[in-house]
Structures are given as structure tokens and as C-alpha cells.
Amino acid sequence: MSNANPVIVYTSTHCNFCKQVKSFLSDRGVAYEERNIDQDEKYAEELWNTGMRSVPVTVIGEAKILGFNQTQLNRAVAELQA
Questions:
Q1: What is the pLDDT along the chain (82 residues), one digit of tens a residue?
Q2: Are 64 and 9 in contact (CB under 8 A)?
């Protein structure tokens, strides 16, 4: 699957919702790039610049989904795979 807008998941190291989002995407065969804000200050800065202040934040196309919101994630993944 080649996609100009890759799926990005902003995470932190000890975040259970982050793990849920990653499992959710993997279970649906969605490739994503994980950006751990604990491991790279640059990713934390990117996240703050989106106006979000907590993780996980999943960026799928134009959608920025905060937390593990299955309804929003399903919708965004469906659009991605359409």
C-alpha cells in the first residue's frame, strides 16, 4: 500500500491507550509510523504544534484522533482503505 500520507501514531513509553491504538491498526493491516515523544524531543514538539497535549494521537490523512477512539479510528481507516 503506497500512501502519500502515512499513518502516524504519537506515543509515549508507558501508555496503555497507545498500545491499544497500535494493536488496532496492526490488526487491520494498516502500516503506521510510531513517534515516541519520550524518545525524541522533536516528536514531542511536532505533537505540541498540532495543539494536542496528550498521547496517543493518531494522524490519518486530515484526521487527528486523540486517545483510543474506536469509532473515529474505524472511520479514518475505512476512508484510508477506500
A1: 444 568 999 999 999 999 999 999 999 999 999 999 999 999 999 999 989 999 999 999 889 999 999 999 999 999 988 8
A2: no
CA angle 63, 30, 9 (to 5 degrees): 50
Which amino acid would we find at residue 75? Answer: R
C-alpha grid cell, residue 44: 514531542
Q: CB–CB of 11/37 below 8 Å?
A: yes
Cell of 69: 477512539
- SS3 (DSSP) at 57: strand
Q: Phi, psi (5° rounding) for residue 17?
A: -65, -35
For cell 502519500, what's the residue?
4
